[in-house]
Every structure is written in C-alpha cells, then in structure tokens.
Amino acid sequence: MKPPSFFEQDRALVEAALERLLPAETAPPPSIHRAMRYSVFAGGKRIRPILCYEAARIFAADPAPAVPVGCALEFIHTYSLIHDDLPALDNDDLRRGKPTCHKQFGEALAILAGDALLTRAFETLAAAPLEPGRRVQVIAEVAAVAGTVDGMVGGQVADLEAEGKPPDAAALEYIHRSKTAALIRASVVAGALAGGGEDADVERLRRFGEKIGWAFQVVDDILDVEESSAALGKTAGKDQAQKKATYPALYGLEESRRIAADLAAQALRELDSYAGRAARLRELGEFLVARRA
Amino acid sequence: MKPPSFFEQDRALVEAALERLLPAETAPPPSIHRAMRYSVFAGGKRIRPILCYEAARIFAADPAPAVPVGCALEFIHTYSLIHDDLPALDNDDLRRGKPTCHKQFGEALAILAGDALLTRAFETLAAAPLEPGRRVQVIAEVAAVAGTVDGMVGGQVADLEAEGKPPDAAALEYIHRSKTAALIRASVVAGALAGGGEDADVERLRRFGEKIGWAFQVVDDILDVEESSAALGKTAGKDQAQKKATYPALYGLEESRRIAADLAAQALRELDSYAGRAARLRELGEFLVARRA
Questions:
Q1: The predicted structure's pLDDT at residue B161
Q2: CA of B7, closest CA in chain A: separation in Å?
Q3: Model's pTM, two decimal places?
C-alpha cells in the first residue's frame, strides 16, 4: 500500500521544521550537532509528526501550530532509537540502512546526542505556538509517555528483561503498549491539544492513538519476520535471533495479522463521529497497518 | 566552613519531596525505579534545589512551590552524573563514595535510568504548582541549560574533546560555564520565577547564579587537587590523571582561589539590593565557595 496522497507534502513540511528546530551543524560544539542531525535526518518516515499534524486538522482550519509539536515527538522517537541501538542495549549496527549513531560517532557522542534530542524535544514544546495552558498539557502528556510508568523507558526495560524468557502475553502487551503505542498515542493526543480539541475529543483521539499505535507495533513484528533487511533498512529476523518478545512468536503470523486488523478497526471506529473532518487521519491509520516496510 | 544553619532543614524538605516525586521501587518495572532511586538517594547535598528554594524566598512569603521545581533540577543533575560516569564517557566506578549506577545495575539500566530522570524532571515541572505561563518559562529555561548550546550536553562534549589537549582558557571557560554553572544558574532563575519575581529580578538572579555557579566549579577543581578521595566521595586527583581541563592546571592553585573569590564577590553584589530578604541566599553563596568537599 502506498502512503496517502498528502503524505509527501506533510513530510516536506515536517522536514523543513526539523531543519529549523535543530541547532546548525556549525554551532559549537559541532560534533554533537552533527550526531543529532545525522540520526534525525537518517530517513525517518515522520509518522509521529504527520499523525500529530493530521490530528490537529480535525479541530483547526490551520494545523500549523502542531508542526513543531510533532517535531518534538520525532526528536523523542530518534533519541529512543539512538539509545536502544547502543551496545549495552540492542547492540544494533544498522538503522534505516545506515550505520547507527554510535557506529558513526562513537558511543559517548551517541549517548549525548540521545540526551540532547530528548532535551531539545522539551525545549521545542516549551516554545510551541500554543497558549501556555495547552503547552503545559502537551508537555505533561509527552513526558509521561516517555517515562517509566507505562512509558517508553518502562517498555524498553521490560523488553530487555523479557529477552530469552518464554513468551508471555501480558509482558508482550506491556512492552508494545509502553515502548511504541504510547508515543504514537501521544502524537495524536498532542495534535488534538494543539488543534484546540475539547476534552472529549482529546480522550477520543487518545483511544484512537492507543489502538493504532498498538496495531502498528504488531505489524512491525510481522514485517520483521516477513521482509528482507533491504526493505526494512534494518536487520530483519533480528527479533527472533535475539529471542525478543513478539506477536508472531507468541500467536503465529496469521493470528498476529488478525489481531492487528482488529485493533486497527477499533481505532478507526473512534473517528466515525468526525466524518470527513477525519478523512486524512483515517487514511493515515489505514496506511500504518497496511504498510510493507 | 559548615553549611548555613537552615541547610539541613531545607534539605529534609527536599528529600521528602524527591521521595514523593519518584515512582515507588515496587512500581513496574521495579529495576528501573531501583536504579533511579539508588542514584537520586546516593547522598547528594541538594545544592540546586536548596538554591532554587532560597531564591524563591526573596520574592515569596511561602517558597513551597519552588520545592518540586528544585527537585526537577536535582533529577537533571543526577541524570547528568549517571551518564557522565558511563564507561564510554568518564568511566568512573565511584560516586559519592558508592558504586556508580552502571557498576551497580549494569550499563543498560544506567543509560535508561538517566533517560528516565531527565524525562521525570520535565514531567515534574509540567505539574509544578505555578500558573501555566510561569511553568512554561521554567521549562524553557531548564531545557535550554540542559541542552547543547551553552548547556550541559555541550559542556560535556567540549570536556571530552579537551581531554589530553594542551590547556586552553577559552575552552575551559566554556566547559565550566556550560557543564556546571548553567544548571546552577537555572536553579536560581527557576526559583526566582517560582517565587514570582519580576523580569528584572529574574535577570539579576541570573547574573548571581552564573557567577556563583562558575565559582562553584572552580572550587570543585581546586578540591580535586587538594582533598583526599575519602573526603570527596569520588576519585580525587582524577582530573589530572585524565588530563582534564581545570583551573589549577591552567592558572595554578593560588590564582584559581583568587578567581573563585572574585567571581563569588561579583555574584554576591547582585544580591545587595534585596538586603535582608536575600540573607539566606547570600549565606548559601558564601558556603558554596568556602566548602571543603
């Protein structure tokens, strides 16, 4: 399935904003800015910022204020990839078809580039063009999903601790929801907040984001089994080699596909009440679970 | 020189708040919460939160809202120590007389505990009992000093890159101002903001914080040469062994002492206009440059 027609246009907006929101490569000390930019501009699809932008569009004629918010989410996503790839964690040499940050710049700079991107995310959110009350809501939401309690760090810890253990459905669900779904959910929630959605809208989009994010990770597990390394731009079959907790390992491929489709359907139903206003977000959701890489 | 009489009382307030603001050790996944708490409760002096609290007192009859703000600064300080101690950076085994986080919990958990404390800092600031406009100002200030441009990550990168090179006054000043003075300055600025200071007050306290933070780091360099490991709770003489850029290495001990005293005097003059209202902050400033460990 090809991305929605508006995808490349949104992506260009996001790329330009990411460029603007990062310090120049020449700013001292240049080495850290080179490392940050290397990983941010390594070919990410920008799914989180685009979800944020298109969620804001449901509520705002001009969703532009959601662009820097989405970029902050991309910084957090990139920081998490840089740190997860480190030798002490997943020890990955390849990411999006390129050497990982620590392979390219050494471990010290990779650790610090991750730290700097996480920090830059909050600096970006603090300066987002939203009224202060909304900015604080977005920051609280994003900080919570990046943290340890049902958040990304918690999910990563559970993932590391599950390696080599027999598959466990509860642990697997915790890992996927915390490590991946949480940030995707926050992208949609932050978009609803940036677009000026009411509380009930924010909660509806939260349910959409949770389910679509979860489905997204199940699809990721499936692709790791099905696709070649070339198509994925990372080492395929690695989950199995590392005895990672995955849906195919626990439920098999067919059942995993059914689970992903079911979660996606539940997610998309949340958008029904917005009818045409949510057309783009709906297309995005469909794309995220039908993608091949 | 002994700490000011109010120091232990302030510290007890801060300890209780840190305890409240961190997830319980039993919260899943427990391992990461154990690692976070191990490093936060490893015996820090709580200089940054106490500076924040006492800066707020100049402007507020009750500086209590500054306590969680100060705790967020302590989380950032602790994260920076955990990551700086990692094998890929300073490779330190001992911190405050105890095994460093990665020695105790392994590198993966140490990296993630640092990430989690940085994240928790912003989550704490987003929930601080200040009106949203002030919260956003504090978050912007703190994120900037934790970052790469004249901030902590920038200072750490410059420090790593200066190792083994001939001493350079400009590089040394950049490192000390970015790596240490910036967070101390932010502690005082955040306190002024939390206490309700006007813009002119915030700028005055910024100048105080900058100078006192810089003096603090020069004193740290001096103590590294003069004191034993036992008194410092970390490996003494390590700066020299690692050929770190320090004031004593560049200027000698006597001149370094003069520089620290001069910076401290400049800092304290900024407080003159507050007279007795700044008595405690003044005492703190004097203590920070006269301490022996």
A1: 93
A2: 30
A3: 0.96
